[in-house]
Write a structure and sequence with these properties.
Blueprint: E1 2-4, H1 5-15, H2 27-30, H3 34-37, E2 39-42, E3 45-48, E4 50-52, E5 55-59, H4 60-72, E6 80-82, H5 96-100, H6 104-121, H7 147-156, H8 158-161, E7 173-174, E8 179-182, H9 183-203, E9 220-223, E10 226-229, H10 232-238, H11 251-257, E11 276-279, E12 286-290, H12 292-299, H13 303-308, H14 312-316, H15 320-325, H16 333-344, E13 355-362, E14 367-373, E15 382-388, H17 389-407
Helix pairs in contact: 1-4, 16-17
Length: 420
């Protein structure tokens, strides 16, 4: 029987309230491995996620079975063994695929050293940074970290610090020479790492041709029935390419016609099956079919980064209303200004590009105040820049004109060119 994520979380929490392994039932709400393999892990048990009526659910039998297994699992808390943590390694220069693979010991080390680096460099100019945070102290922690700081940070960022749905810091102890965990818990985490690797490797395989894809979800597409793995060539062969033939149509009219987005290839990434019709919420015009990832990127992602995406601005201009008015949806306006300020403003003779963010908006005067700073490169410095509503509109229009000018000469199947 399918049950909601909320009920699954409540049921699992009730079943495991006296479990010896520290668990985080909220994993059932956040579904951290959903896009990668479609399961939520608690130790070495993989709970499958199901899509039912466009909502992610669980099978109640799976939740009860997993909860009962952990309620009955015994740990000998006196049987402690050396965790054998690896030496710290910087991400730079490492193989990205190797770094992404499940390795709970390396994740624990990376988290500890990352926290130590943040503490050591927070508020310090770039030219004063050093590697003192890499030195391990008598308490087993790098830099001048304390155990209390580790626990507090783990509580604030609990979902990124979980290991297979469990809370390792609640069992981890420092002997004075080495980090210790219960033997049975270490064995449980090792089985989790192996099981998750198996599921990720299985999910990487194209369902059509059997070719193995990139490790971290590059070919995974969200559909009405769940995630599907399909390589770009197979997606291109299986789905139609959108040619802009619905340009100017209202989204409401499209829904009444019942035209399916999942018959098409995503017009943004051009690699995955589309799952929705993206449309402008200001003018109601259809922009084109997009996959779940690209739809989330446009609708809920950070506008600043979407505008840097190849074809991102031109996709927004598929809306005839935005195109004719030479504008973009309002939520993008200040990010256009932010990018402009970062490209044109400099602190004195400093050649580094500053970081800009909006400080406040004076509604009475229609002025946006931005703070710019380049404190990461030299002695801390910041300054403000006021931009009027008129200047914002002018910058957005200039941005649109530049995007359209750069688009000239592309094939007619690309973004709209019929603006007159």
């Amino acid at each position: 029987m399918p049950i909601s994520r909320e009920y699954a979380r409540s049921l699992f929490a009730d079943l495991t309230q006296n479990a010896m392994v520290p668990l985080d039932p909220d994993e059932l709400l956040h579904m951290p491995g959903l896009a990668q393999h479609g399961h939520v892990f608690f130790g070495d048990i993989a709970v499958r996620c199901y899509k039912y009526k466009a909502r992610w659910t669980y099978d109640e039998r799976d939740i009860r079975r997993t909860g009962q297994a952990f309620a009955e699992l015994r740990l000998d808390l006196d049987d402690l063994v050396d965790v054998q943590l690896p030496a710290y390694r910087d991400f730079e220069g490492s193989d990205p695929e190797e770094w992404q693979r499940v390795d709970w010991r390396r994740r624990l080390v990376s988290w500890m050293f990352g926290l130590a680096r943040h503490k050591a460099q927070d508020g310090i100019p770039f030219d004063e940074w050093d590697d003192s945070w890499k030195q391990v102290g008598a308490n087993g922690l790098p830099g001048d970290l304390t155990w209390e700081e580790c626990v507090a940070d783990s509580s604030r960022h609990r979902h990124s610090q979980n290991m297979g749905g469990t809370r390792p810091l609640e069992l981890l102890t420092w002997s004075g020479e080495k980090w210790l965990l219960p033997r049975a818990y270490i064995e449980l985490l090792d089985r989790w790492a192996q099981r998750e690797e198996e599921l990720v490797d299985r999910a990487r395989v194209c369902s059509s041709c059997g070719v193995q894809g990139p490790y971290w979800g590059g070919w995974r597409t969200s559909t009405s029935k769940g995630y599907v793995t399909r390589c770009p060539p197979c997606s291109g062969a299986a789905f139609r390419t959108y040619t802009g033939h619905l340009r100017g149509m209202q989204y409401g009219s499209l829904r009444r016609l019942g035209t399916r987005a999942d018959d098409y290839l995503c017009r943004l990434c051009k690699k995955s099956q589309a799952s929705a019709w993206d449309h402008c919420h200001e003018h109601g015009h259809v922009r084109g079919p997009v996959c779940g990832s690209c739809n989330t990127l446009e609708g809920k992602g950070i506008p600043y980064y979407f505008l840097q995406l190849e074809g991102g601005a031109l996709h927004l201009l598929e809306c005839r209303g935005c195109l004719q008015q030479r504008t973009l949806p309002p939520r993008y306006h200040l990010d256009v200004v932010r990018a402009h300020l970062e490209q044109t403003e400099r602190h004195g003779r400093c050649r580094r590009q500053p970081y800009a963010r909006e400080l406040e908006h004076a509604h009475t005067y229609g002025v946006h105040r931005f703070q710019l700073e380049c404190s990461g490169w030299h002695t801390a410095s910041d300054w403000t820049k006021d931009v009027t509503a008129f200047e914002v509109a002018a910058l957005v229009r200039a941005f649109v004109d530049m995007a359209l000018a750069a688009q000239q000469g592309r094939p007619s199947s690309g973004p709209v060119t019929d603006a007159g």
